[in-house]
Amino acid sequence: MASSDSQLLAFIDRQKLLLNRERDAEVERSSLLLSNCGPRLLEQKGLALLGLGIHEVKIGLGGKTLIELERPSAYHTNPTFPPHNLRTGDLARIEANITTKSKKQASTDTKDSTVEGVVYKVSDTRIVLAVDSEDDLGLPERCRLVKLANSVTYDRMDHAIEHLEKTIKGEKDSELTPLIKVLMGMMPPSPLNKLEDISFFDESLNPSQKEAIRFCLESPEVACIHGPPGTGKTHTLIEIIRQLASTSSKRILVCGASNLSVDNILERLLALPVSDKSPRLRVTRIGHPARVMTHQGILEATLDMKAARTDQAALAKDVKFELETTLALLSGKGKGVKGKVKGTERKKLWEEVKALRKEYRKREGGIVSSVLNESQIVVATCHSSGGRQLRNQEFDVVIIDEATQAIEAVCWIPIFKAKKLILAGDPMQLPPTVLSLDKRRKQQSKAASASSSKSQTKTSSGKSKVKPNLAKNATPIRPSPSNSRKDEENAGNGSGDDVKGEMAIEDSKSPSTPDSGTEEESAGSGSDDDAKSETIVANTKTRSKMPILRPSRSLETTLFDRLESMYGSGIKRMLNVQYRMHNQICTFPSRTLYSNKLTSHSSVANHLLLDLPETQSANTSTQASDDEETRKEILGTPITFFDTAGCEYFERLDGESGGDSDEGSRCNENEATVVKQWVEGLVEAGVGPERIAVITPRR
Ligand SMILES: Nc1ncnc2c1ncn2[C@@H]1O[C@H](COP(=O)(O)OP(=O)(O)OP(=O)(O)O)[C@@H](O)[C@H]1O
């Protein structure tokens, strides 16, 4: 039985409710911060930059006004911004700086001079805000920039879910495609379109990667790739893109949850060798250039750069020049201009700006369409695929990388643009960040810790001095060879079916009720595990079992999770050889998370720091035998744990927000000292500092 109308609507309603909660949590978080703090404190928190001046006003893609701000020498001795959290894509507001005015006068001025926009570019000394407004901006001489809660992401997700609702109800012109039907449990996935022989571009692919590629190419509507860490998800996706683009001449939209993930793919696509068999791929990257500029090659692939190189660009350039000159006049910054233009002259100039901007947008729109129409592969984050530039663009396949870190609604933004969907991710790693859930969890844990606080008074506020000889406190523990052998034996004996993705729990609830019990329970009172684990309905390698659509328990339930719940493990293929970790590191996640299916490639299975060329050459120097033994121990052990139990290494919470909030910064100096000593030991033993990374779950 396919999803009924009531199941479909219950699903949509639930998505809307969860998205609303998330939006509220985001707004609450930022507006709380903003309303409670004065400008100075906001600057200290990295949420504002004070004492700025306008350096330049220009026109950017989409006819947006780009306002470049700086720290003028009149107010600052150092032009470099203090540390801040204003990032490209953030929503921010320019306000008049009120310090020199009377409060009453200042509040009127501030209101008049407020300009909102999106942070377009950030450097150490300049920050550019892109503004969409058609009106006279009336920019203040001296201003500050304040970060705002960002609603654009939520608007696009809401829009995508509304679009889905209308499509399902038949209210939308767009077709209810087989892809949408499969994703919504209205029909099971169609049988695979068997391919006789696939000629792989990359000869080095391992069997599980080849199987995943074949599966993705043969699946008519949807296919998932489950890639544990370092198993070559990106490697596999690159081959899929090459197969689709070069062999099948398909048009592909490559998306990801983050700019980093899509740039990683783009970088690898651009580095591919070109030959008769493998022609150059026509790739365009959509997105803020400031986020994209990791290297010149990627920058060259951006829509902005490509648009600037077209023949039509010269025509738009003339209009842009005229527009910028007029804007400079209006802001009193034009050549030979003294002060701002005022009165009717100003009004007339703004009319001109409006007309010029319209003309510019028209010309630029033509350029953008022609660049995109020539692109066979478009790369964008899920969020930016919902922008104006891709509005009328259609694709054969949409690929979403890091799909297990993206909430479902954001995936729907690109899904409507294609007939087929490929998801890659790892449901066993961290789910997407969900603010509304975090808030509830904090409340729960606060309530729980309040009840036990009397018996445990020494916690985050405790400060203990670092003891002189840490080795006596925190003892390094290394898994002994016998332990690890045992692990391997155990690994061989595992039943292999205790992983979430492979579990079979026959459904016993009514299909029409949310699997989470009551609506309120489902939203908040469940444990973390509850929130992530959906009832899994099918356990079959065939993909034809009739699905049951359930409203998601929380936004942590990703589309990948949901498809696996609906269709069982047959909807995915798992990559099972990892190329990053020593086997001793790999064994634990393999056993606990991947049913013992994760194995280590021979190139990494036994590699040690001792095998590095620099540590081998350091070895030749004459060393005291004791030192040499320690060195070998440090370099010859793939994993070491420090037992700090009983050492009284207390955590400290720094920050202004006080005990009620989690906004401060957590640190544990004693643990940091242990890490520092270990790093020093590694460097002494010959490991290059550039090879060492320290990661921490603390903020
Ligand atoms: N078939 C293969 N042969 C040799 N090396 C490979 C193969 N597949 C992947 N690798 C290497 O393994 C490493 C991890 O690959 P990749 O970055 O594609 O994995 P991933 O699953 O996307 O990683 P992450 O865990 O960061 O998501 C890379 O150095 C890649 O070159």
TrEMBL record:
Residues 497-509 have a biased composition (Basic and acidic residues). Belongs to the DNA2/NAM7 helicase family. Coiled coil: none annotated. One of its GO terms (molecular function) is RNA binding. One of its GO terms (cellular component) is cytoplasm. The keyword Nuclease does not apply. Its EC number is 3.6.4.12. Keywords: ATP-binding, Cytoplasm, Helicase, Hydrolase, Nucleotide-binding, Nucleus. Its main location: cytoplasm. Residues 219-561 form the AAA+ ATPase domain. The keyword Nucleus applies. It is found in: Cytoplasm; Nucleus. InterPro entries: AAA+_ATPase, Coronavir_polyprotein_1ab, DNA2/NAM7-like_C, DNA2/NAM7_AAA_11, Helicase_ATP-bd, P-loop_NTPase, SMUBP-2_HCS1_1B. Residues 445-463 have a biased composition (Low complexity). It catalyses: ATP + H2O = ADP + phosphate + H(+). The lineage of its organism: Eukaryota, Fungi, Dikarya, Basidiomycota, Agaricomycotina. Residues 438-545 are annotated as: Disordered. This is DNA helicase. Residues 201-489 form the Helicase ATP-binding domain.
